[in-house]
């Protein structure tokens, strides 16, 4: 209740002509209108409460619950079971602080929607869409709330939450398309009926001896933003992007109608939803995706740990390794690498950072030993031969090979994001860039220069690895390079070997000016250092910097205008909106000083 009261006080009527109604506006639906909506969805309407409300004075105060919430705050499985739960709230408005210990922060919903339909079937979704349309209320679609750009958040909104649409995961030994549609796919398939996460699907796929193309982190949702925005994966190199695997979708449209989208029906919608991003064309409630035969993998893990060496020397060595990535990829390697603060490993070393990678190679059933031998000799000659002279002196080099009988053992041992990502944090920003072969091969000096820019401070101070992580996702190459029909991912994906992600953070108590400088430094200086090496490439829409002024071009490439035409066709009245999604330029949040506010038309 507290959150709601504060929202009522906070509102300021917008200067724009046409805005969606918020709780402080006279046009906000009455309690009886909400109650009627609740009846029409069989009581599944939730008046959303901030998760940590029990930490604050009021009827819900509970020291014991607050303790539990504080302990679970970094647990993304806990966060995603809560309607107000977000991995990366755009503004943190209800942290689990200890009020009795003297903190007197206020607790409000912030960017979380006011009401949530805990949908379990298509009719609930349609009822939410209709209500939002009829009452001019902002609508938000949420699955897990993992989105890094904040696209499943929305101040003053009604949320359609698809988490509990769970009509099962079904396996087809041989895929048979609906309605007699022709398909080129003669292999197996899974139909995923709702808000399942990759952890669910990995388990099911393993039990059928199949590999599916899914998230590096098991807590990401299957059918939502991940799949619709592209989806990179530890197995994508061998089978293509996750969105390339989609055979068929069931979609609730803005009109309320539920349709099938595949290569025969609603093909424009099918294409837009295969790579054009979630949240804006319709609500996907089921997806059928390819399932591939099981394979063995080998793995390689490398740690480069500076002992006496400084950060500059680590970046020199890292740039040299990265310049060989397309060679590794062409030899079958794929996986994830990082340059991360040594403090995360509780190491205290002068350089302040280490390089590490966990790569794998899928082994074909015929020619296994030749493939293994080839892969090992490429990695030994291209990477290890250059490193071993340093070992034991300036650096500690740890190189380990693994044999895995299956994808699952590869994933569980070294490929999955088993180290839980921090969640519930709003004091970080991410920017990504795709790298093609010419930007890597024989380009070590320029890559080193880029890393120097990234690890230098905007105020001209010395190189410093504090509060910066670089993820080097070697998830392209191989099948990712091959365009498939009916996809709308940024075509730059078809040249991508490496996706580089920079994550910068700032202290919780940083001043507004420091935060602003840090954000601008990432959006412009650091991101431009990546762009300078990768002309014509793009950023990954699902792992991107929303402040990027070239977001249309960087996220969608030349497909933007076509995607917008599909958006206009299927959602002519803009009932769906998310920040930086296709069509979002027609709307803007009037944020005032809070960082969020009413959603209004821009023209
Ligand atoms: C810990 C972590 C690990 C990650 N690992 C990877 C990775 O390995 N590979 C990768 O490619 N990405 C990864 N990502 C990024 C991920 O792809 C995005 O966060 C993605 O948006 C998550 O989709 P979601 O549906 O789970 O999240 P949500 O936040 O619920 O939704 C994301 C977007 O999709 C829309 N949406 C959700 N469900 C639907 C639906 N059913 N129909 C229509 N629109 C919908 C929402 O409106 C929103 O715009 C990771 C993110 C996190 C936080
Ligand atoms: C919707 O109805 C259910 C069941 O009657 C009730 O428990 C719930 O509190 C109602 N939701 C709202 C927002 O009033
Ligand atoms: C809050 O602080 C008080 C007093 O220091 C303590 O007794 C209580 O256990 C704390 N509660 C939580 C949830 O940490
Ligand atoms: C949660 O993560 C943050 C940031 O990584 C960390 O500072 C904090 O200690 C973590 N909290 C818990 C309870 O693990
Ligand atoms: C995270 O939360 C989920 C869901 O509440 C719970 O099942 C799991 O045990 C938690 N994990 C940890 C490490 O606390
Ligand atoms: C809350 O109060 C405790 C004890 O006074 C303090 O350690 C902590 O940093 C405070 N947290 C915030 C967010 O102000
Ligand atoms: C949502 O609905 C599901 C299924 O009916 C239920 O298990 C779950 O507890 C509900 N969640 C909330 C937050 O009400
Ligand atoms: C099937 O293959 C043909 C020929 O390559 C191609 O034209 C067609 O688009 C493919 N269909 C699908 C659904 O991918
Ligand atoms: C880092 O070490 C290298 C090699 O020892 C040296 O040439 C360089 O000057 C050092 N850089 C800094 C900033 O100390
Ligand atoms: C076997 O693998 C090697 C090394 O990858 C490759 O050069 C060769 O062409 C492969 N042979 C066959 C028949 O696939
Ligand atoms: C790294 O240092 C070596 C010698 O110190 C130098 O020749 C080379 O150009 C530097 N950069 C890279 C990327 O190797
Ligand atoms: C890096 O920056 C942090 C915090 O800004 C500071 O504490 C640390 O001393 C710096 N390290 C170096 C090597 O300059
Ligand atoms: C942040 O920086 C931008 C660009 O320099 C500026 O336009 C904006 O007003 C600043 N915002 C705040 C809150 O300081």
UniProtKB/TrEMBL annotation:
Coiled-coil segments: none
Assigned keywords, A-Z: Oxidoreductase, Signal
UniProt keyword Chaperone, yes or no: no
Sequence ranges assigned to domain FAD-binding PCMH-type in this UniProt record: 108-294
Presence of the UniProt keyword NAD in the record: no
Protein family according to the UniProt entry: Belongs to the oxygen-dependent FAD-linked oxidoreductase family.
UniProt xrefs under Gene3D superfamilies: 3.30.465.10, 3.40.462.20
Protein known as: FAD-binding domain-containing protein
GO molecular function, one term: FAD binding
InterPro entries with a match to the protein in the record: BBE, FAD-bd_PCMH, FAD-bd_PCMH-like_sf, FAD-bd_PCMH_sub2, FAD-linked_Oxidoreductases_BP, Oxid_FAD_bind_N
Endpoints of the signal sequence: 1-17
A Pfam match: FAD_binding_4
């Amino acid at each position: 209740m507290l959150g709601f009261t504060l929202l009522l006080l906070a509102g300021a009527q917008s200067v724009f002509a046409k805005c969606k109604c918020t709780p402080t506006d006279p046009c906000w639906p009455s309690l009886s209108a909400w109650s009627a909506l609740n009846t029409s969805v069989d009581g599944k309407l939730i008046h959303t409460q901030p998760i940590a409300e029990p930490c604050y004075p009021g009827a819900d105060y509970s020291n014991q619950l607050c303790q539990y919430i504080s302990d679970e705050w970094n647990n993304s499985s806990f966060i995603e079971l809560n309607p107000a739960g977000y991995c990366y709230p755009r503004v943190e408005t209800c942290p689990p602080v200890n009020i009795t210990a003297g903190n007197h922060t206020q607790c409000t919903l912030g960017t979380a929607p006011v009401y949530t339909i805990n949908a379990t079937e298509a009719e609930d979704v349609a009822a939410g869409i209709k209500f939002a349309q009829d009452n001019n209320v902002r609508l938000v679609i949420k699955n897990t709330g993992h989105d890094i750009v904040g696209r499943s958040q929305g101040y003053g909104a009604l949320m359609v939450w698809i988490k509990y649409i769970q009509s099962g995961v079904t396996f087809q030994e041989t895929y048979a398309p609906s309605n007699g549609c022709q398909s080129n796919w003669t292999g197996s398939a899974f139909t995923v009926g709702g808000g399942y996460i990759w952890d669910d699907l990995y388990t099911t796929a393993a039990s059928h001896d199949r590999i599916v193309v899914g998230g590096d982190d098991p807590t990401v949702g299957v059918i939502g933003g991940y799949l619709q925005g592209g989806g990179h994966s530890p197995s994508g190199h061998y089978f293509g992007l996750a969105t390339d695997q989609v055979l068929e979708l069931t979609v609730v449209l803005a009109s309320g109608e539920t349709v099938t989208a595949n290569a025969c029906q609603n093909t424009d919608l099918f294409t837009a939803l295969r790579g054009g991003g979630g949240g804006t064309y319709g609500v996907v409630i089921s997806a059928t995706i390819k399932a591939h035969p099981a394979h063995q993998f080998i793995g390689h893990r490398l740690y480069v740990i500076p002992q006496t060496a400084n950060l500059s020397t680590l970046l020199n060595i890292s740039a040299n390794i990265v310049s060989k990535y397309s060679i590794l990829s062409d030899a079958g390697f794929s996986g994830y690498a990082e340059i991360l603060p040594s403090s995360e490993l509780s190491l205290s070393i002068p350089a302040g950072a280490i390089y590490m990678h966990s790569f794998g190679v899928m082994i074909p059933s015929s020619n296994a030993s030749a493939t293994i031998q080839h892969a090992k000799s490429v990695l030994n000659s291209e990477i290890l031969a250059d490193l071993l002279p340093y070992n034991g002196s300036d650096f500690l080099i740890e190189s380990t090979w693994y044999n895995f009988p299956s994808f699952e053992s590869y994933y569980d041992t070294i490929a999955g994001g088993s180290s839980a990502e921090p969640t519930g944090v709003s004091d970080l920003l991410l920017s990504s860039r795709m790298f093609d072969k010419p930007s890597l091969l024989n380009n070590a000096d320029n890559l080193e220069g880029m890393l120097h820019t990234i690890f230098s401070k905007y105020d001209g101070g010395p190189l410093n690895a504090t509060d910066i992580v670089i993820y080097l996702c070697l998830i392209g190459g191989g099948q990712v390079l091959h365009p498939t029909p009916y996809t709308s991912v940024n075509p730059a994906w078809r040249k991508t070997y490496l996706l580089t992600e920079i994550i910068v953070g700032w202290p919780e108590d940083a001043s507004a000016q420091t935060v602003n400088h840090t954000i601008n430094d990432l959006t412009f200086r650091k991101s431009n250092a990546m762009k300078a090496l990768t002309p014509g490439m793009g950023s990954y829409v699902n792992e991107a910097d929303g402040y990027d002024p070239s977001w249309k071009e960087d996220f969608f490439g030349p497909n933007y205008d076509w995607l917008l035409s599909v958006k206009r066709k299927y959602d002519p009245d803009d009932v769906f909106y998310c920040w930086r999604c296709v069509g979002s330029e027609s709307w803007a949040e009037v944020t005032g000083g809070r960082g969020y506010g009413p959603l209004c038309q821009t023209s």
